[in-house]
Amino acid sequence: MSNSLFSTIARLKGNPRACVYTEPLWGLSMNLCMPYLSVYMLALGLSDTRVGFIVTINTLSQMAFSFLSGPITDKMGRRKATAVFDVLAWCIPSIIWWRAEGFWFFLAAALINGTNGVTTNSWHCLLVEDAEKKQITKIYSVVMACGQLSAVFAPISAVLISRMTLVPAIRILFVNAFILMLIKVVILYLASKETTVGETRLRETKGMNVFQLAGGYGGVIKIIIGSRGTVFSIIIAALAWIVGTINSTFWQIIANKKLLVPEAALPLFNVFRSLLAIIFLFLIIPRLTKGLLKLPLLLAFAGYFAGQSLLIMVPAEGVLKYPLICVSLVFDGFGLGMLGMLSESLIALHVNPEERARIMAIRYMFIMIATAPFAWLGGFLSDISRNLPFALNLVILAAGFCVTLFYYRKTEDHSV
After folding, report:
1. Average pLDDT over residues 274-300
2. pLDDT in tens, 219-250
3. pLDDT at position 291, please?
4. What is the CB neighbour count within 10 angstroms for residue 203?
5. Looking at the predicted structure, is the pLDDT value of residue 45 above 80?
6. For the CA atoms of 339, 340, 342, 347, what is the dihedral angle to 10 degrees?
7. Does residue 188 carry a pLDDT above 50?
8. Distance between CA atoms of 152 and 147, rounded to whole angstroms?
């Protein structure tokens, strides 16, 4: 028990505790509605291609704000930047999504939501900069589990959709998201303090503007290129992000439109996958992430590959449909939990702590550049066949498996 994630939760202090303890509010707000955003857009008249286009625009917006996230985080401080940009990125778009009537509403929300490129950076700095390095993988496992806690409340979504139909139910969930995210922002701000590195960067950047700070990216890029582990961690994160974007955008569509799963039943599958991710994160993954991280990475890519393959093969009719969907979600839950935790842990383990904010900014910008074409491509492929976005995921997951094997041919790094 002393090495369990439950023990990790109990022993957290300072900023890691503030970040982790408030994270369930993310699950109870955005995670209750964001998984259904794609089918919500379809219900309001958008095509698969337009859904993919909206996601691409969102990704490009994130890319722009990711570029500036390092200087902004250093200039404003981790704590303040997180509070300000959480409101911009989540609270304001939630109001737009609530009142959305068509394409232009979703486009505006996507552009504003892209400001989460800043808060993603600042929040992670706030989470890990004062944490012990040996606790980082466990902390990210806890964070992933907290984000999945919405599974306990997801039946509420199913009841709302069955009684009110999809659009009115999702509108209510976006109002809930606005309220709970605002509460999360306030609690986190009051319960946290600026990190030690953050205070140093505030002093060092005094009198400089954001664009002057961005001009120093050349030196940061040299630091990144000079670290083989950092380059590897960025590539893994980009591949994980691409797969996750395609899966989260098009899973509800393939389930509802191809496999004919009723809209009211979609939240129940989200419950199942989230509960599996929590179980894996608490009981299985900690046993696999002791020592070299090669095997956990390979298992993550292989598990995700198996889940996506099964999803493509599920028939639209017959008694095997629902059991096969559940089996595919077992593999997806494992891959989701493992790959999500490892992709964040790897960069935290390798990043130069004095330049964390700007290195993370470059990392997120690269991820957004890599991801942007795939959301639109996924929508284009989905208009041809609902299977094709997941066939694309298989190619990306196979690439991740090969990259991992290649990297570990020459290194024995990442022992934790």
Report:
1. 77
2. 878 888 888 888 898 999 999 989 988 998 89
3. 58
4. 8
5. yes
6. 130
7. yes
8. 11
- CATH class of segment(s) 14-201+214-407: mainly alpha
Name residue 159's amino acid.
V
pLDDT the model gives residue 415: 43
All structural domains of the chain with their residue ranges? 14-201+214-407
